[in-house]
Design brief:
Chain A has 126 residues and is mainly beta. Chain A is built from no helices and eleven strands. The termini of chain B are far apart. The chains are: A mainly beta (126), B mainly beta (105).
Chain lengths: 126, 105
């Protein structure tokens, strides 16, 4: 069974750096064509894709947030870590991690998100 | 960046109704489009990928069609469990979600 679970602080202050961890099981991020993304959703609003990391450790970032995001993976722990700098109240959202299979991003083949974590709500407030 | 639109933004329907949601892209996606269902407080659930392929375990009353820039999600006979928000998402070039369509009673 494939599962993903997000963890991290529920509250951060403006200008702080947010670090979120996605811990997964049931698949390996060393398997060819496997990818994990972070996606967020502000309260009452639509979904926004943030960043993807693939099995080959290539990383792809949202154009609008590229300068603030960093993604990394620890394959021994089955974890993907997202950091987002200079947090602002508009970054208040539920943050999800999700898996993509059949993902060959370097060849322009991306894939749908077939399994999602339950999400973690992050509030940015002083 | 590819922009996505959905119509309608809200849809009021009854159990048993046939429901159609339209999604349009700002440029051709070929068939690289997915549909998700999201219920309040829950993560999105993949329904359809590659425009018309039904995800395993998803009821056959859900279907998708289209290619290029215009796509539709159809629910053939709306069930009580189907009242939710539906999002389209392109994955032709990175990822972009549509603004969502809320299906309510």
């Amino acid at each position: 069974q494939v599962t993903l679970r997000e963890s991290g602080p529920a509250l951060v202050k403006p200008t702080q750096t947010l670090t979120l961890t996605c811990t997964f099981s049931g698949f390996s991020l060393t398997t060819s064509a496997m990818c994990v993304s972070w996606i967020r959703q502000p309260p009452g609003k639509a979904l926004e894709w943030l960043v993807l990391i693939d099995w080959d450790d290539d990383k792809y970032y949202s154009t609008s947030l590229k300068t603030r995001l960093t993604i990394s993976k620890d394959t021994s722990k089955n974890q993907v870590v997202l950091t987002m700098t200079n947090m602002d109240p508009v970054d208040t959202a539920t943050y999800y991690c999700a898996r993509t299979t059949g993902c060959m991003a370097s060849a322009g083949i991306w894939g749908a998100f077939d399994v999602w974590g339950q999400g973690t709500m992050v509030t940015v407030s002083s | 960046d590819i922009q996505m639109t959905q119509s309608p933004s809200t849809l009021s329907a009854s159990v048993g109704d046939r429901v159609t949601i339209t999604c349009r892209a700002s440029q051709s996606l070929s068939s690289w489009l997915a549909w998700y269902q999201q219920k309040p407080g829950k993560a999105p659930k993949l329904l359809i990928y590659k425009a018309s392929s039904l995800e395993s375990g998803v009821p056959s009353r859900f279907s998708g069609s289209g290619s290029g820039t215009e796509f539709t999600l159809t629910i053939s006979s709306l069930q009580p469990d189907d009242f939710a928000t539906y999002y389209c998402q392109q994955y032709n070039s990175y990822f972009t979600f549509g603004p969502g369509t809320k299906v309510d009673i």
